[in-house]
């Protein structure tokens, strides 16, 4: 997050328009306030048919207004937008998108949108037919051309019995995108439109018996952040997800669930054909048991027999080899290296050796262990390239590291075009 003067909280305007998903704005508001943001809620009149002003006032600690003729002496219809460091509209209905695209200023929310000079994130929620209508698509394109970040809606259950694209993304994702824009206003350009990317995430598990397995501490958060940021930058994203810590599936992303290293390998090879970029962020088990016990291994007085292990396939190296041999039509290949270092070799040297050994185009090197990287919200490291450049990735949210990685990927893709 952007560093603020001591004691001052980032100022956020949360706009809420009149759709059934307005109730989810309460969770967005709670998460923003609890993470240290000063949030003022600006609903439309129709939004108050779904959630009353008392709820927003209690959660934000600020009065709620909808029109421009209250608190006139404070010129709120101008001041709110001028002072905001981030504006989030969730949900953004088709009507609100249309009014914003045409520059209307007939209530406090649309007036605030006209005066805001900070990042603006609009999160649509509507029925599929409304989202896909040419008028809505044109309005979205207009807003994006002006620098507004219009998020991709999720797919799932809508109102009534309908299911499809147009569902409001999970509040966790909305807050993550908002905090990313506070950290870096330029983090979500639409520079991956027309690109197809494949990302692996999570940690594989290799069964020992029906109830036990060999695994690792990867939560999948970095891979999911990579997928989320790529989708909101316009890419067609396939996320191959091994075991994760009950993470919310990113909106606009096709998720393929796998369990073992071999299952991950099969899915990655199948999905990588024709991809513009493949990012291997999953923590793949290096070894698996030679034998799988058909029944639970019982605890007895004697020590258990040693578990014989065999190597798992090196998926990253195989991707590079198949591309080199012309078997795989894949653009950039990006690896991740989770390293601890040792008394003789620092982490970065391990990363340099791995880049040489694997032959991928880019390699993200993370220091892990002792509360770093695995199972954490933040990350840091270095981005190594085959052209010899080494770029530090300062400590920050995993979504911010994701944005920096996609910046590098888009530059490399542009050089190849």
From TrEMBL:
Q: Tell me the route in metabolism or biology where this protein functions.
A: Cofactor biosynthesis; coenzyme A biosynthesis; CoA from (R)-pantothenate: step 3/5; Cofactor biosynthesis; coenzyme A biosynthesis; CoA from (R)-pantothenate: step 2/5
Q: Does the keyword section mention Ribosomal protein? A: no
What GO annotations for molecular function exist for this entry? FMN binding; metal ion binding; phosphopantothenate--cysteine ligase activity; phosphopantothenoylcysteine decarboxylase activity
Give yes or no: UniProt keyword Flavoprotein.
Answer: yes
Listed Gene3D superfamilies: CoaB-like, Flavin prenyltransferase-like
Sorted alphabetically, the Gene Ontology cellular component annotations on this record are: phosphopantothenoylcysteine decarboxylase complex
According to the record, the segments passing through the membrane are none
Cofactor(s), by name: Mg(2+); FMN
Flavoprotein domain ranges (all copies): 11-175
UniProt: CTP binding residues: 286, 296, 313-316, 336, 354, 358
Q: What is its EC number?
A: 4.1.1.36, 6.3.2.5
Family matches, as InterPro entries:
CoaB-like_sf, CoaBC, DNA/pantothenate-metab_flavo_C, Flavin_trans-like, Flavoprotein
Q: Where is this region: Phosphopantothenate--cysteine ligase?
A: 197-417
Per UniProt, the keywords (alphabetical) are: Decarboxylase, Flavoprotein, FMN, Ligase, Lyase, Magnesium, Metal-binding, Multifunctional enzyme
| CC cofactor note | Binds 1 FMN per subunit.
Biological process according to GO: coenzyme A biosynthetic process; pantothenate catabolic process
The reactions it catalyses are: (R)-4'-phosphopantothenate + L-cysteine + CTP = N-[(R)-4-phosphopantothenoyl]-L-cysteine + CMP + diphosphate + H(+); N-[(R)-4-phosphopantothenoyl]-L-cysteine + H(+) = (R)-4'-phosphopantetheine + CO2
The entry sums up its family as follows: In the N-terminal section; belongs to the HFCD (homo-oligomeric flavin containing Cys decarboxylase) superfamily.
Task: Summarize the protein's role.
Answer: Catalyzes two steps in the biosynthesis of coenzyme A. In the first step cysteine is conjugated to 4'-phosphopantothenate to form 4-phosphopantothenoylcysteine, in the latter compound is decarboxylated to form 4'-phosphopantotheine. Catalyzes two sequential steps in the biosynthesis of coenzyme A. In the first step cysteine is conjugated to 4'-phosphopantothenate to form 4-phosphopantothenoylcysteine. In the second step the latter compound is decarboxylated to form 4'-phosphopantotheine.
PANTHER family per UniProt: HOMO-OLIGOMERIC FLAVIN CONTAINING CYS DECARBOXYLASE FAMILY, PHOSPHOPANTOTHENOYLCYSTEINE DECARBOXYLASE
State the protein's name: Coenzyme A biosynthesis bifunctional protein CoaBC
The species is Saccharopolyspora gloriosae
């Amino acid at each position: 997050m952007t560093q603020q003067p001591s004691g001052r909280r980032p100022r956020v305007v949360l706009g809420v328009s009149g759709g059934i998903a307005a109730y989810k704005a309460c969770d967005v508001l709670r998460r923003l306030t609890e993470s240290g943001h000063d949030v003022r809620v600006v609903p439309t009149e129709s939004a108050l048919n779904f959630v009353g002003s008392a709820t927003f006032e209690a959660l934000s600690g600020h009065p709620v207004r909808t029109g421009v003729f209250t608190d006139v002496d404070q010129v709120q219809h101008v001041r709110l937008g001028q002072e905001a460091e981030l504006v989030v509209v969730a949900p953004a209905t088709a009507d609100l998108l249309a009014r914003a695209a045409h520059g209307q200023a007939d209530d406090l929310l649309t007036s605030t949108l006209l005066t805001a000079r900070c990042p603006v994130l609009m999160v649509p929620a509507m029925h599929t037919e409304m989202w896909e209508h040419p008028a809505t698509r044109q309005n979205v394109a207009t807003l994006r051309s002006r620098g507004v970040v219009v998020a991709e809606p999720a797919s799932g259950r809508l109102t009534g019995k309908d299911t499809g694209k147009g569902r409001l993304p999970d509040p966790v994702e909305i807050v993550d995108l908002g905090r990313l824009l506070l950290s870096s206003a330029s983090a979500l350009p639409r520079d991956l439109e027309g690109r197809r990317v494949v990302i692996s995430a999570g940690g594989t598990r290799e069964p020992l018996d029906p109830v036990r397995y060999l695994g690792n501490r990867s939560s999948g958060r970095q891979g999911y952040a990579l997928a989320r940021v790529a989708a909101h930058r316009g890419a067609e994203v396939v996320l191959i997800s091994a075991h994760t810590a009950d993470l919310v599936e990113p909106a606009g992303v096709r998720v393929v669930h796998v369990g073992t290293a071999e299952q991950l390998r099969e899915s990655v090879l199948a999905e990588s054909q024709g991809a513009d970029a493949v990012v291997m962020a999953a923590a793949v088990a290096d070894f698996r048991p030679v034998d799988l016990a058909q029944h639970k291994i019982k605890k007895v007085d004697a020590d258990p027999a040693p578990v014989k292990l065999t190597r798992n396939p090196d998926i990253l190296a195989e991707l590079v080899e198949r591309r080199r041999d012309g078997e795989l039509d894949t653009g950039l290949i990006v690896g991740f290296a989770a390293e601890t270092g040792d008394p003789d070799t620092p982490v970065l040297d391990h990363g340099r050796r791995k880049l040489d050994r694997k032959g991928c185009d880019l390699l993200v090197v993370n220091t892990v262990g002792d509360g770093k990287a695995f199972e954490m919200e933040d990350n840091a490291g270095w981005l190594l390239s085959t052209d010899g450049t080494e770029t530090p990735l300062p400590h920050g949210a995993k979504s911010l590291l994701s944005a920096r990685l996609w910046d590098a990927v888009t530059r490399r893709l542009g050089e190849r075009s």
